[in-house]
Design goal:
mainly alpha; Growth Hormone, Chain: A; 3 domains; 20 helices
Length: 488
């Protein structure tokens, strides 16, 4: 029996680089799509004859569906196998990209972006599970480091590539560029990636739990996005948060009562799994500052949109260069030491950006922002490896979904949080009422507000570092279930 299992795993590992190619192209497409779309919003606002309150839903609709459906897709991957879910998601995403590219108006575009988000939820939910399954444990950190590098490349290339495409061919090609990439990625996965055994036979999908979780996350995501405009003390926003909390409690109650839950809550009994997942969530809240940096570059430093886009590439490029190296180091020295080092560099970077003022030079900005990308690169792949290394093999899909969910929820929390911090401080520093147009605000107030938001992010980073120290201590007294799984 053991020899049969070893032979099966050897066969799966033989396809690891094909799997990396197929999944990597999907990851590149998904991350490139986010950063390209963000840089295209001013053009879409102008050419579709709408306003900012509406055009932002081109981005919000995508992240809303992505966040809400990811865990359901992950559970489906554990039941029918991640390969089937990934191929279905890739097909939906590619078709959604085509529909976005031919959308006749803003309402159609927002709807097609939501459809595209469904495909992204399926691919992102199970992509890491495929990589974990096809790479042997001793190469996991390296593999996840490569994925982290691909994410960084997508995020870095998006602003510059998007600006170039819009200038040469128009905004529709921001979406249409995904179509050929989607076909290639789908062919590679269909042709070369083997079927990966799903969980135990006879499993059923927890429809009620999926719907409750969907309502919970939709209410949460709507509250975090609409709260930026209505105010977080608005009765509507408070009501959405209360509804999210109530549905979450009901979801937890249901999951403890049924035989085959969407999330086996016993997975959270592993303290290390839970702590590393929380660390990922908090770090991506810190990363929400990416929302306010363009205002510093354009309003304070006087850069054009194109030049600001190139300067915005520094953080993701730094992350992309470091991430594969960090993954390899985590394979050799363990993930927790490397992720702690990344957190230290990240905190230093946030404190450095927190010292920006209106007289900062371009070089001064680059030297301050680069450590944030380096810190993210050093933290992310080792921490991902630590999370997935604690997951049982028949729960890899859900663990992968939880990991991606922690990132998207961190981003959807961090962006409005950093935006609110920025808005509050810029109003206080300028002495002007909230809602004043940025063009009418003094440069010094904008610079001071950006710096203040990043000092708050550094404080949050200190909390994450303390959690990392506790995980390090726990790890020294806890056996890794992954080691046990592959030695049996």
């Amino acid at each position: 029996m053991e020899q049969s299992h070893d032979a099966e795993m050897t066969g799966i590992h033989r396809h690891k680089w094909w799997a990396m190619t197929g999944v990597g192209l999907g990851v590149l497409m998904g991350t490139l799509d986010i950063s390209i779309v963000n840089i295209s919003l001013p053009t879409l606002e102008r050419e579709l004859n709408t306003h900012f309150a509406t055009i932002q839903w081109v981005a919000v609709a995508y992240i809303l569906v992505l966040t809400s459906l990811m865990l359901g897709a992950a559970r489906l991957g554990d039941i029918i196998g991640p390969r089937k879910v990934y191929l279905t998601g890739l097909t939906i995403f590619t078709l959604g990209s085509l529909l976005c590219g031919v959308a006749p108006g803003i309402e159609w575009l927002i709807g097609f972006r939501a459809f595209q988000g469904l495909g992204a939820a399926m691919t992102q939910a199970v992509g890491v599970a495929i990589i974990i399954a096809v790479f042997p444990p001793q190469e996991r950190g390296r593999a996840l480091g490569i994925i982290g590098g691909i994410v960084a490349i997508g995020l870095a290339a998006g602003p510059a590539l998007g600006g170039l495409m819009i200038g040469l061919a128009g905004w529709r090609w921001v979406f249409l560029v995904n179509v050929p990439v989607g076909f290639i990625a789908g062919f590679v996965v269909w042709k070369h990636v083997p079927s990966i055994q799903a969980g135990q036979a006879g499993q059923r999908f927890d429809t009620t739990g999926a719907l409750l979780l969907l309502v919970t996350l939709v209410c949460y995501a709507l509250a975090m996005t609409l709260g930026q405009h209505l105010g977080f003390s608005s009765p509507v926003i408070v009501g959405l948060f209360i509804a999210a909390a109530f549905c979450l409690l009901l979801f937890f109650f249901l999951e403890t009562c049924i035989h085959q839950p969407m999330i086996d809550l016993t997975i959270f009994r592993d303290s290390l799994f839970s702590v590393n997942l929380l660390m990922c969530f908090l770090v991506f809240i810190m990363n929400g500052g990416v929302l306010i940096l363009p205002f510093f570059l354009e309003r304070v430093m006087g850069f054009s949109t194109e030049k600001a886009g190139f300067f915005m590439m520094v953080g993701p490029v730094s992350m992309g260069l470091v991430s594969p190296w960090a993954g390899t180091l985590s394979d050799r020295h363990g993930p927790r030491i490397i992720s702690l080092l990344g957190l230290l560099v990240l905190i230093v970077g946030c404190l450095a950006v927190g010292s920006l003022d209106a007289d900062a030079s371009g070089l001064g900005y680059l030297l301050r922002i680069a450590p944030i990308g380096i810190g993210m690169g050093l933290f992310q792949a080792p921490n991902n490896s630590a999370v997935m290394g604690r997951a049982p093999r028949n729960r890899l899909g859900v663990a992968s979904g939880l990991l991606n969910l922690s990132r998207t929820m961190g981003s959807s929390t961090g962006i409005p949080l950093m935006g609110a911090l920025f808005a509050t401080q810029v109003s206080s520093l300028s002495g002007l009422p909230a809602g004043t147009e940025l063009a009418d605000l003094p440069r010094e107030a904008i610079a001071g507000a950006v710096a203040g938001a990043y000092r708050t992010a550094a404080l949050l980073g200190l909390i994450v570092f303390i959690l990392g120290l506790s995980a390090l201590r726990l790890g020294r007294h806890s056996a890794n279930p992954d080691d046990h799984r592959h030695s049996s």
